[in-house]
Specification:
Layout (H helix, E strand, L loop, with lengths): L1 H15 L9 H13 L7 H17 L8 H14 L2 H22 L1 H88 L6 H30 L16 H10 L3 E6 L6 H21 L5 E9 L2 E8 L4 H10 L2 H11 L3 E6 L5 E8 L10
Parallel strand pairs: 1-2
Antiparallel strand pairs: 2-3, 3-5, 4-5
Helix pairs in contact: 1-2, 2-3, 3-4, 4-6, 5-6, 6-7, 6-9, 8-9, 9-11
Length: 378
């Protein structure tokens, strides 16, 4: 459609402008028509179209036909080159067109050369307009790309936060349920043993204490479970999640392990730890004691020590049982040791765990007291 309109304008120019060359003959009209046919492909191959037009129009102008008629189609080709090609190509095309035109016109005479200088102003103007359009198009494209990239980044960040929150809730539920269910299992086993050991001399006090321990463990687990699941009901991420467990709750963990039959020696040095670091230490000790009660065997002694060294909180849980291989099995099949390592990593710390050469198992964690990022732990 554009080429047809340009061709129609050229016909009108030939009829109106008669003082700038002779009316085109058959060959002139054929060349003028060919120029408007070639312009159809200007967007697909602007440089090739420009080269073809230069050949066609040089032949046309050599016939001294109406020189104004092909002006519109030539300016359209120049504009397309400037708006769609690299700046180097634009400069080369502009220099070539102006050089050929000025050379031929000044060869004909100074008057014709002066006239060609006026026309060269139009050439420069259309090239500059094309360059502006190309720069504006690139700017709009870059803005759209940045907006799309920002949207993708927001979606990825939202997905990452959801995944981190699910992982955090899964860790909390694992730590809570594994610890509580293990204690309930041990305490009910104690009650069952007392009931069946000597039915004629039933130790009612021991049975009652074991059942009370089961009830207390269930109440504690229910409270922690309610606090953890409140996160899933929260409308926004910034809603309060309740106080985090910390170092001051370690004696409760030790007492729970003692009710399960373990001898726990707890040593906690006074220190001011950030809430996230204290919570990580609490969960690590909780999981370590759960593994001891579950795997280390009866009558086990556990030493839990928490202190500071080199601006870090050092947590150490050591037992003297025979549970090295079961602990390794837990590491291979479950999520206990993996969860402890993730707890340490979320506050920028490290955790080592494994059987000791002299027997038993050891869990050792180093948690920086001033971590770079505490957002992943709750």
């Amino acid at each position: 459609m554009f080429a047809v309109a340009m061709a129609a304008s050229s016909v009108v120019v030939v009829q109106v402008v008669r003082d700038n060359g002779r009316p085109p003959g058959v060959l002139g009209w054929a060349l003028l028509l060919a120029a408007h046919v070639v312009i159809v492909w200007r967007r697909r191959a602007p440089m090739r179209v420009m080269a073809a037009l230069m050949v066609i129009l040089l032949t046309y102008h050599s016939l001294n036909a109406n020189h104004t008629a092909p002006m519109a189609v030539s300016m359209a080709a120049l504009f397309t080159v400037a708006s769609r090609c690299r700046p180097r190509n634009t400069v080369l095309v502009g220099a070539a067109v102006m050089g050929i035109m000025l050379g031929l016109k000044f060869h004909e005479g100074m008057a014709q050369g002066a006239e060609s200088l006026r026309i060269s102003g139009w050439i420069v103007a259309f090239l500059l307009i094309g360059v502006y359009v190309r720069i504006h198009r690139q700017y709009v494209t870059s803005v759209v790309e940045r907006a799309e990239r920002a949207e993708r980044t927001r979606e990825e960040e939202a997905r990452r936060r959801v995944a981190e929150e699910r992982l955090r809730v899964a860790r909390d539920l694992h730590d809570l349920l594994a610890h509580s269910i293990t204690l309930v299992g041990v305490q009910t086993s104690v009650a069952a043993h007392v009931l069946t050991a000597d039915p004629d001399r039933l130790d009612r006090a021991a049975v009652a204490k074991a059942l009370d321990d089961v009830a207390e463990t269930c109440r504690s687990a229910r409270g922690e479970l309610r606090a953890t699941l409140q996160v899933l009901r929260a409308g926004t991420e910034n809603e309060a999640r309740g106080p985090l467990p910390g170092l001051d709750s370690l004696p409760d963990l030790a007492d729970a392990a003692r009710t399960a039959g373990a001898r726990v020696e707890l040593a906690v040095a006074p220190c001011e730890a950030p809430p996230a670091v204290g919570a990580a230490a609490y969960r690590i000790v909780q999981e370590a004691l759960t593994n001891v009660v579950r795997h280390a065997g009866p009558g086990i002694t556990v030493r839990v020590s928490v202190g500071t060294a080199d601006a870090a909180l050092c947590v150490r849980v050591v037992d003297d049982g025979t549970g090295g291989r079961p602990q390794e099995a837990d590491h291979a099949q479950g999520f206990g040791l993996l969860g402890m390592r993730e707890r340490a990593r979320t506050v920028g710390g490290t955790l080592d765990a494994g059987p000791r050469p002299e027997g038993g198992f050891m869990v050792s964690a180093v948690l920086p007291l001033a971590p770079l990022s505490l957002g992943g732990l709750s």
